[in-house]
């Protein structure tokens, strides 16, 4: 993408972020000459016409959202210049960092600081909710914080983008993955994929918990495990991790993250009102405010704890088929859908199956016959005269001496009643026997084989009359490789006699080696790190004489280092050869120039040495180049002065003055004359100064003595 011109307007620059659906690039709007951020959807998303139309519709809705804490949307387009649809969104460029960087550096942080960071976010969400727009992917990475030079303003990005991808279903155009980072997904998004403003409120509550504690409320070894916790576990109170957090701050987190969305604030505007109340209490320095805490805590009614008649009390399952795609797990192996096997639990994390009431057998014809007989018993008892039920002096229940005549005949009493009773007894016995057989007797208890190797575990199962098969191995931080970390059914669970128990063997701790990235571009290095389950941290530029500009020089930690999944790797990128600025050394000693230039890695060459009447010997007459920028190993050439040229004074004694003067001036000397001490007026030279044979600089003055 770098260097491309989208729709003949947006010149793509370096990539500044990468996500699951798109990459963000710094770009130049060539028409308006301004810097913008361009979010380019990953290849394939733009091929679906229905998705493209949905993306345009949601981009327009987001563009109408005008709020100081919302990243502005400028344009949307679909570029086909390279033969494929490149769907992109042009947004306001916010130079700075994200809330994720603040979490890494400052969390856990005081409640006042956490709420100050969140208030602009909740304000922006409130404006969106009033406009009927739901964010659906609130997380620290989508909260941008401008640097101080640009005012430090906090802005929320990516409004409406998740909805554009998910439309009216929990599946995306990319093949069924739930939209939203799993750590911030509201339970209802996991269960049925439907979202309203309260899903954003839940995500804000999770972010607040993370700011206060420095950790996410629900952790797990896979996205499925994290999502399961969101559905079946409450977000814990932050004060359990960071003692000293006021009770009303705990209550605000509990209210925003209630698993029952009816107990959360209706939208971000209501949440903002609660946040202001908590901020006021913090400004007053209250360590505790039971009245405010009680008012903020989610309100539960007795009906919330009593299931409706006929409703199953089993926790509501969620769409494991969609969520399992996040880790490429077969939904049947995820442990989150019913497959008919007894006591089914997840192979990733064991959760007790809620106890059910006594099974109700299917209604059969004998039961329908027995029911009227049982119902007739109270009526017959009511028709019996009081005297026949109890009389003074008799024990209760004893029959009187004279019983009242019975309207029915003995035949009817002795045949229908006993037969129906017998049938009922036989039916109940049959049901009990069937339940005993199908529910207990034909099953055996799965022996405990955790911690054994595969051979020992298989032998243990064979001794119990069961068969063993190896399932998909899994990583474990505390169980050595090759040992059993789980079984299906789990130890103590029920399995059919002669049935099969699936063993999950440990792969040992999940670790990845830092790949060799030297020589790759930053984009290539980020892709390589993502492919090895490692995270890109930061990049720093360094001068390099051997690595071309923009390529990786080295990584920190270095290549081959073994790290946990998700660990960050920093890149050192080449800025190219280091430029060296030179100055003009003309008229200065060559020796000084040579020392200074060679110290900076440049070569010094003397191309010529010439005499100069104006430049002292050893000084620089000229250099090439005189100024500018060079690089290590480049050469600077000099012309050096030999000083003035020296000429030998000839013998001019006894020569006529005119002849001597012509000779000396021809050699480049200046000539002066003076009368000798004995002057006879003959016009001949008696001596010269400097004298014959001396070497003097050309241009020097020779004084002639004339007799």
How are the SSEs placed, and which strands pair?
Layout: E1 5-6, E2 10-18, E3 22-29, E4 34-41, H1 49-63, E5 73-79, E6 86-92, E7 96-98, H2 99-106, H3 111-130, E8 143-146, E9 154-156, H4 161-166, H5 187-192, H6 197-213, H7 223-232, H8 247-256, H9 268-283, H10 290-296, H11 302-305, H12 320-323, H13 365-383, H14 386-389, H15 410-441, E10 443-445, H16 454-463, E11 467-470, E12 484-488, E13 494-496, E14 500-505, E15 512-513, H17 522-531, E16 535-542, E17 552-556, E18 562-563, E19 568-574, E20 579-582, H18 590-599, E21 603-611, E22 620-624, E23 628-631, E24 635-643, E25 646-648, H19 657-666, E26 670-675, E27 685-689, E28 695-697, E29 701-706
Parallel strand pairs: 11-14, 16-19, 21-24, 26-29
Antiparallel strand pairs: 1-2, 2-3, 3-4, 4-6, 5-6, 7-8, 8-9, 10-13, 12-14, 15-18, 17-19, 20-23, 22-24, 25-28, 27-29
Helix pairs in contact: 3-6, 3-9, 6-8, 8-9, 8-10, 13-15
Explain what the structure shows.
The protein has a 6-stranded antiparallel beta sheet with strand order 1-2-3-4-6-5, with helices on one face. A 3-stranded antiparallel beta sheet has the order 7-8-9. Among the domains are: 5-92, Phosphorylase Kinase, domain 1 (2-Layer Sandwich), CATH 3.30.200.20; 97-158 and 173-300, Transferase(Phosphotransferase), domain 1 (Orthogonal Bundle), CATH 1.10.510; 512-574, Trypsin Inhibitor V, Chain A, CATH 3.30.10.20; 579-643, Trypsin Inhibitor V, Chain A (2-Layer Sandwich); 646-706, Trypsin Inhibitor V, Chain A (2-Layer Sandwich). It has 19 helices and 29 strands. The radius of gyration is 47 Å and the shape is elongated. Mean pLDDT is 77; it is low at 164-179 and 301-413. It is an alpha+beta fold and 707 residues long. Residues 440-507, 508-575, 576-642, 643-707 form the PASTA domain. The chain crosses the membrane at residues 419-440. It catalyses: L-threonyl-[protein] + ATP = O-phospho-L-threonyl-[protein] + ADP + H(+); L-seryl-[protein] + ATP = O-phospho-L-seryl-[protein] + ADP + H(+). Residues 10-276 form the Protein kinase domain. It comes from Nocardioides zhouii.
């Amino acid at each position: 993408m770098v260097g491309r011109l989208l729709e003949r307007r947006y010149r793509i620059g370096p990539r500044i972020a990468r996500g699951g659906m798109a990459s963000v690039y710094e770009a130049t709007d060539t028409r308006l000459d301004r810097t913008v951020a361009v979010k380019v959807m990953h290849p394939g998303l733009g091929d679906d016409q229905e998705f493209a139309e949905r993306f345009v519709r949601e981009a327009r809705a987001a563009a109408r959202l005008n709020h100081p804490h919302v990243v502005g949307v400028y344009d949307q387009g679909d570029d086909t210049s390279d033969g494929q649809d490149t769907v992109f969104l042009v947004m306001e460029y916010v130079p700075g960092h994200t809330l994720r960087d603040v979490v890494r550096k400052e969390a856990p942080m005081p409640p006042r600081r956490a709420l100050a960071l969140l208030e602009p976010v909740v304000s922006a969400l409130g404006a969106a909710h009033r406009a009927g727009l739901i964010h659906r992917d609130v997380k620290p990475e989508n909260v941008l914080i401008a640097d101080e030079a640009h005012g430090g303003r906090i802005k929320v990005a990516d409004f409406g983008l998740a909805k554009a991808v998910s439309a009216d279903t929990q599946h995306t155009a990319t093949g069924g993955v739930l939209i939203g980072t799993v750590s911030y997904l509201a339970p209802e998004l996991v269960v049925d994929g439907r979202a309203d403003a309260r899903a954003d409120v839940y995500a804000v509550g999770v972010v607040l918990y993370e700011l206060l504690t420095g950790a996410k409320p629900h952790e797990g070894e896979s996205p499925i495990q994290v999502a399961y916790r969101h559905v079946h576990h409450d977000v814990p109170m932050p004060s359990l991790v960071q003692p000293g957090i006021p009770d009303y701050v705990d209550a605000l987190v509990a209210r925003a993250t209630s698993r029952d969305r009816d107990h959360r604030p209706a939208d971000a505007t209501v949440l903002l009102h609660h946040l202001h109340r908590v901020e006021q209490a913090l400004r007053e320095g209250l360590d505790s405010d039971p009245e405010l805490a009680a008012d903020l805590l989610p309100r539960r009614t007795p009906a919330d704890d009593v299931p409706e008649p006929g409703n199953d009390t089993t926790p509501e399952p969620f769409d494991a088929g969609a969520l399992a795609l996040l880790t490429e797990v077969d939904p049947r192996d995820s442990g989150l859908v019913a497959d008919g096997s007894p006591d089914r639990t997840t192979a990733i994390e064991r959760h007790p199956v809620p106890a059910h009431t006594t099974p109700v057998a299917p209604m059969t014809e004998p039961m329908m016959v027995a029911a009227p007989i049982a119902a007739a018993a109270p009526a017959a008892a009511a028709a019996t005269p009081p005297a026949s039920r109890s009389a003074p002096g008799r024990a209760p229940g004893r029959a009187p001496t004279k019983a009242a005549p019975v309207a029915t005949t003995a035949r009817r009493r002795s045949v229908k009643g006993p037969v129906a009773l017998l049938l009922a007894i036989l039916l109940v016995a049959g049901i009990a026997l069937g339940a005993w057989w199908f529910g207990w007797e034909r099953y055996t208890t799965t022996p405990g084989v955790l911690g054994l190797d595969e051979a020992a575990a298989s032998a243990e199962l064979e001794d119990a009359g069961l068969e063993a098969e190896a399932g998909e191995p899994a990583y474990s931080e505390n169980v050595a490789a090759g040992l059993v970390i789980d079984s299906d059914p789990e130890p103590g669970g029920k399995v059919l006699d002669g049935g099969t128990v699936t063993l999950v063997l440990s792969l040992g701790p999940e670790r990845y080696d830092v790949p060799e990235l030297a020589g790759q571009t930053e984009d290539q290095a980020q892709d390589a790190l993502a492919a090895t389950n490692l995270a890109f941290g930061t990049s720093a530029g360094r001068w390099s004489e051997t690595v071309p500009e923009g390529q990786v020089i080295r990584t920190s930690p270095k290549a081959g280092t073994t790290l946990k999944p998700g660990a960050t790797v920093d890149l050192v990128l080449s800025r190219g050869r280091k430029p060296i600025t030179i100055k003009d050394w003309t008229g200065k000693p060559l020796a000084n120039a040579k020392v200074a230039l060679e110290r900076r890695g440049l070569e010094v060459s003397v191309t010529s040495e010439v005499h100069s009447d104006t430049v002292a010997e050893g000084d620089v007459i000229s250099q090439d180049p005189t100024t500018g920028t060079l690089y290590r190993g480049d050469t600077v050439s000099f012309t050096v002065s030999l000083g003035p040229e020296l000429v030998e004074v000839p013998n001019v004694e006894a020569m006529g003055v005119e002849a001597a003067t012509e000779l000396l001036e021809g050699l480049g000397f200046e000539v002066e004359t003076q009368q000798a001490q004995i002057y006879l007026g003959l016009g001949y030279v008696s001596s010269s100064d400097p004298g014959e044979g001396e070497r003097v600089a050309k241009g020097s003055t020779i004084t002639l003595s004339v007799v």
